[in-house]
Specification:
By secondary structure, the chain is α/β, with parallel strands linked by helices. It is built from nine helices and 17 strands. A hairpin with an 8-residue loop joins strand 9 and strand 10.
């Protein structure tokens, strides 16, 4: 048996050659995150296996329009469109979406021939064949395990989006819609939730499962900004763009726990936030950690509660002086440019290149399957078909 080292698409967060799941509620930017990830891979700017070496990405999407939504998002995120491929299947003279597990073998061929570093599934559930009961563990594994084997064989990272169900549990893995097989087959899970305590409307991404690496990674905070992108007729369209703003002590599990806590608990959190701001103002805007915690203890406020509220209270924690002293300080910068209390780590959150209003695709919906240079024969005995992929330009 050959023992191999773990390789990371995103160092310590997304393993190469394995399935990673990104679950969360609707409308919090999961698709924008997948576009951000695509841009990093096609530019070679993500800290990991392909840093400095741009790689191709296959983006399999079923819910959004390529011309109106996905292509403009890719432009806004700074993706190299020549390295972004969409995929559908032509069978019997018609077109259909990629279907798992039926098309897995042919997809593996495309991944190998294009040198794909990332297969993005938006969302993963929509790629599962309709005849498979995704709430039955055994049925779902019949689709996911071949996909995991594809990743392992080709070295390509597969990242799929998933939704949270409506249960009130605080376990991120249990909240994933469908069978537990989703989280069981995935080697890593990065959950996403909106921080209801954050005044800037930001969201948090936390590593809630990692079979191949460390689990105690800092959570990341991001916001969604508006970006202008030029269309094929010369007009401008506005599209969302995800921007990571740094690390945070808050986690998705913290947010889920607060959402399901008693009203009295939520009220105490609000009071702690108000007390923190008031206390620091009374101290001239900053205080040493020891003094602050002593004052909070007299008010019956625990340090863990302060750790939850300091970001929405617009407080930063810094270490300075000699001997080193930890200071809690009110942030006085322009609220339109919110700080997070932690500088982004270039190794953890690489900068996203922005093409601005240039490089719009201007593509119509039918251009992608007209170039035979990007065709792949499917060896499907029951229904011979052809898999087509074409760069989104």
């Amino acid at each position: 048996m050959t023992i191999k080292p773990v390789r990371w698409l995103w160092q310590d967060r997304i393993p190469a050659g394995a399935l990673t799941l990104v679950p969360g509620r609707e409308g919090i930017g999961k698709s924008l995150y997948l576009v951000w990830l695509t841009a990093q891979i096609t530019r070679g700017t993500l800290h990991g296996l392909h840093y400095g070496t741009p790689k191709a990405v296959i983006y399999a999407a079923t819910e959004d329009s390529w011309s109106y939504t996905i292509a403009p998002r890719l432009v806004a995120a700074g993706a190299d469109l020549d390295l972004v491929y969409r995929v559908d299947v032509e069978t019997g003279g018609g077109l259909d979406f990629l279907t798992l597990p039926k098309d897995t073998g042919q997809l593996a061929q495309a991944v190998t021939e294009l040198g794909v570093g990332l297969l993005a599934a938006d969302p993963l559930l929509s790629l599962i064949a309709s005849g498979i009961d995704t709430h039955r563990d055994r049925d779902l594994r019949s689709a996911l395990e071949p996909l995991a084997k594809l990743a392992d064989k080709t070295g390509c990272a597969v990242v799929g989006l998933a939704h949270f169900n409506k249960s009130t549990t605080t376990d991120s893995l249990t909240l994933i819609t469908g069978s537990r097989a989703f989280s069981a087959v995935a080697r890593a899970v990065m959950a996403v939730a909106r921080d209801t305590e954050a005044e800037d409307g930001s969201c948090i991404m936390s590593q809630v499962k990692s079979n191949l690496g460390p689990l105690n990674l800092p959570s990341l905070r991001y916001i969604v900004e508006q970006a202008a992108v030029a269309t094929s007729d010369g007009s401008m369209t506005t599209i969302g763009k995800l921007v990571f703003t740094g690390e945070t002590d808050r986690s998705v599990n913290d947010i889920l726990g607060e959402a399901n806590s008693e009203p009295g608990v939520r009220k105490s959190t609000t009071l702690a936030k108000e007390w923190l701001v008031s206390y620091l103002m009374s101290q001239g805007g900053e205080a040493a950690r020891g003094d602050l915690l002593a004052a909070a203890k007299r008010e019956g406020i625990a340090e863990r509660t302060l750790q939850r509220v300091y970001i929405p209270a617009r407080v930063e924690i810094v270490t300075e002086g000699f001997p080193r002293t930890t200071i809690w300080r009110l942030i006085t910068s322009n609220p339109e440019s919110p700080e997070t209390g932690a500088e982004p780590s270039r190794a953890t959150v690489p900068p996203t290149q922005n093409l601005g209003a240039t490089g719009a695709t201007g593509a119509t919906e039918d251009l992608w399957y007209t170039d035979s240079n990007h065709s792949f024969d499917l060896q499907e005995a029951e229904a011979p078909a052809q898999l087509w992929t074409e760069a989104t330009r």
